[in-house]
Amino acid sequence: MIRSGRKYLDSLDDGREVWLDGERVKDVTSHPAFRNTASSIARLYDLAHDSEHSHLLTSDGVHRAYVVPRTHADLVARREAYKVWAESSFGFLGRTPDYMASGAAGFAAMPRLFTTDTFDGSDNVLAYHRRLAEEDLYCAFTISDPRSGTGEDDLVVRAVEERDGGIVVRGAKMIGTGAVFADEVVVGTIEPLAPDDVDHALCFSLPIDTPGLKFVSRVSYEAQARGVFDNPLSSRFDENDSLLVCEDVFVPWERVLTYRNVAATAAMWWETPAYLNFVHQASTRFWTKLEFLAGVAILLTRSNGTHELPAVTQSVGRLLGMVAQAKAFVLAAEASWEHVDGGCGGVMPGTEISFAQRIMAGELYPRAVQEIRQLAGSSVIQLPASAEDLLHPELGPVVGTYLRTPGTPAKDRIKLLKLAWDALGSEFAARHEQYERFYHGAPHVYLTMQNWAGGAQNCERLATACLDGYDLDGAPTRSPGALQ
Predict the structure, then answer these.
(1) Where are the alpha helices (DSSP H) in 12-140?
(2) Model pTM?
(3) Domain identity same for 162 and 246
């Protein structure tokens, strides 16, 4: 069943415990810190439910992200669905419902990995995937540990009691991006655990309104926004991040995916297609986001009348090259697809290219932002405080006179510059730059993992072939091109 946006919004009125600025939020759909973003997510559901894009976004009555891909064509179809939703937020909503949906499909592709000597979660993970797909649910995740610096590992989520019907968990997890807008949350760990650290080796999924679950929100950029004209991105696409706290939360056994098994708790992310599916969605969104930023840059140069200057055309060309790089990683990961579980679990994007995308994105985004800042110059600094200045009967004509450029009325120019500042220089923008730098984890993690992705042996083979091709006297030891 594909939900409408209205049904999605209605589902959020469930008594969930969300805290912001020392206040418990009664309803995220009406609170000024969350309501516009909730509406933006509702629009995603409407696009799938009933729009000209429904055929791209759905397959056999479920969102396409839930479908386990069996062919390269299926990966392409999934990416086309990702692209529709990414364009709806111009790439600024990172953890939309299709993100964890693709992860759930990755789990379902290899349920055998959830069967261990300590717990059999294979049926649970299939039921989890089926529930999310059939009810069209939005699932977030919290899979990182809070860093207290105290060495008190009892701050991290762990089971403190076993009962006949399930377990009781206590502790905290982060970073719950989008969690305050979700239906369920996966609580687990993607970080390495010591082989004997079975107390923290667990993963489960719960409804957001489960008694004992608290979500402590960071500052809301949406709440700080003056309005859509003045803050067109932060006022509508602040997906929020929150700390999850479990205060003796009861988790039924059927909601547990892994339990007291370090290997399975890691394998669910790295040995199933789940993580590569995440990268597929994220890389499509990243490509879309760079397209948007390049478009802003082009509009800025035209508004400033600098678009024909050689240095400016080169800068724009550099940005368009970045867009092409981001696109190329998506297409290459699809084209280098791999079988899952010997073909039993369908196919997944290529590991080597997917892992490399994480490096590219984290390094490219700050460069793109800096490039556009150079093009914008000081024009994004001296702006009217708000749209009220333009609407004021006395001040409006003054602003209209002095902030226009040839061919661009003041209102249109200010509108563009405020969009640029929200994307490049606001607190919302700073969060996004940091977010993209660490979207796939810390660099020391993904750079190390690239060594495991499969490309090193061929690189070494080629260099060794060159060395083996000549001797001390310079004479060739094999015919040119004979590398075997």
Answers:
(1) 35-49, 54-57, 72-88, 97-109, 122-135
(2) 0.93
(3) yes
